[in-house]
């Protein structure tokens, strides 16, 4: 554990910067954050997209999805629509910042048409 962490979106703190204990596990695919911080993050992401042409939709595999006028072909297509996250980690007397661009925290769900049977 590198220490206490604070989460930011577009350099704005998530709910007055509540801190949480950061733990990095190189063998884990997913990222987990406390429910209060996750819910506030989702709210902030929705807020940053309020002026966007993206529409929130129900995904097949993920609980939170957005759809554009044209399909995203890769995660690199989301850079202009979503804001960067950053994680400020404080350990003892030092502070580190981990910048997380949208293409590193989003997944593109590809609609694959199944053949008729």
TrEMBL record:
<dbReference type="Pfam" id="PF14541">
    <property type="entry name" value="TAXi_C"/>
</dbReference>
<dbReference type="InterPro" id="IPR032799">
    <property type="entry name" value="TAXi_C"/>
</dbReference>
<dbReference type="InterPro" id="IPR001969">
    <property type="entry name" value="Aspartic_peptidase_AS"/>
</dbReference>
<dbReference type="InterPro" id="IPR021109">
    <property type="entry name" value="Peptidase_aspartic_dom_sf"/>
</dbReference>
<dbReference type="GO" id="GO:0006508">
    <property type="term" value="P:proteolysis"/>
</dbReference>
<feature type="domain" description="Xylanase inhibitor C-terminal">
    <location>
        <begin position="17"/>
        <end position="107"/>
    </location>
</feature>
<dbReference type="GO" id="GO:0004190">
    <property type="term" value="F:aspartic-type endopeptidase activity"/>
</dbReference>
<protein>
    <recommendedName>
        <fullName>Xylanase inhibitor C-terminal domain-containing protein</fullName>
    </recommendedName>
</protein>
């Amino acid at each position: 554990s590198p220490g206490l962490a604070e989460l930011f979106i577009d350099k704005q703190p998530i709910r007055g910067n509540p801190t949480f204990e950061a733990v990095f596990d190189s063998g884990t695919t997913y990222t987990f954050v406390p429910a209060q911080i996750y819910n506030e993050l989702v709210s902030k992401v929705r807020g940053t997209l309020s002026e966007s042409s993206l529409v929130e939709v129900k995904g097949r595999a993920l609980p939170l999805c957005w759809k554009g006028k044209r399909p995203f072909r890769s995660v690199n297509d989301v850079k202009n629509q979503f804001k960067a996250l950053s994680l400020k980690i404080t350990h003892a007397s030092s502070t580190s910042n981990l910048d997380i661009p949208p293409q590193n925290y989003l997944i593109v769900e590809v609609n694959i048409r199944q053949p008729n049977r």
